[in-house]
Amino acid sequence: MTVLHIAYATDWEAAQHTGEYRISTRGRTLEQEGFIHCSATRAQARTVTELFYADVTEPLLLLEIDPTGLDIRYEVPEGAHEAFPHLYGPLPTSSVSAVYEHNTR
């Protein structure tokens, strides 16, 4: 089982230098949000992209995360009708098993 996270390419590149990714969602850090927003499926990631990233013009990536050893909790966000995985704590870059280009169109 994997989980997915939408990331700006620049944020992921910066994480390569520190070994940790600490961005929760568009414009918010792990410290500000308390967790990192993730998606359970590509369909969930597409929905999130359509709702929150449709106007983004800079490159986006879809990070495929191996959840082994990570504090991931499935929760239903306010206004949602299904559970989404949330990562409580930083994402070690070593837990990312694949990186895909992810566009808003």
UniProtKB/TrEMBL annotation:
Matches recorded under SUPFAM superfamilies: ADP-ribosylation
Keyword Transferase: yes
Major enzyme class: transferase
GO molecular-function terms, A-Z: glutathione transferase activity
Keywords: Transferase
Highest taxon listed in the record's lineage: Bacteria
EC number(s) given by UniProt: 2.5.1.18
PANTHER family: BLR1139 PROTEIN, DUF952 DOMAIN-CONTAINING PROTEIN
Protein name as it appears in the record: Glutathione S-transferase
Source organism of this protein record: Nonomuraea dietziae
Higher taxonomy: Bacteria, Bacillati, Actinomycetota, Actinomycetes, Streptosporangiales
